[in-house]
Predict the structure.
Amino acid sequence: MSSVKYVEDHGGRVLDNSKIQIIFWGKKWETSSSKKIFRNQIKFALCKIFVSDYFIKLNQYRDIHKPSLLKIVTNTVSKAPDSFSDRHMQHAIVDLILNKTVAYDHDTAFILIPTEDMKLDCEDPEIVDGGHDFFSYKLRYDQQETIVTIPFGYIINFNDIDQITLTITHEIVEIVTNPEYDGIYGHLGMCKYAEDQQCELADICETSSDSVTISNTLVSKYWSNIDQKCVPS
């Protein structure tokens, strides 16, 4: 008989009414006709995911509501180097906040989709295909400066629609439940990789059967305490 497994609520921040802001990053999304077509395919797939019941099981964790998808935008103004770092990603987000292309509030998380020629600096693409993090920034509201903490995620674009939707759903689940690494996650023994410092909900289900198809779109499974298995099944 298999042992019972539970992820734990560590009391930190979660995004219980999250708004997901997708940003296509790089001028080539606008200048290449093939990339424009691919961008539209990604948008269509994401819309199908967000209108489905995919995120519904997150409700068991501190009553997290189903995330909403904000209007998808393309960033052609920020630097988009072939080898990018956290600093470049942060600038790509802040630039759009400052020019009012996107807005930020406490429930907003940003997901960056670079063009396929852009790779994450100092990471092995055979191992890393996405991630999430957060940063602090001083924004001006109503004539006052306020330091805010902005959660964000990214994917490595291999020009494959299944890889993109699988990775995006993986990162959204984790950014909603554990945006500042002090929210909801499991103990180390629950993860596939021993070096993982936290076992986040989608990481627990990171095996050869870590995905499922919803509305003809590939999505990541994530751990459900209630069901004691990876969902959706």
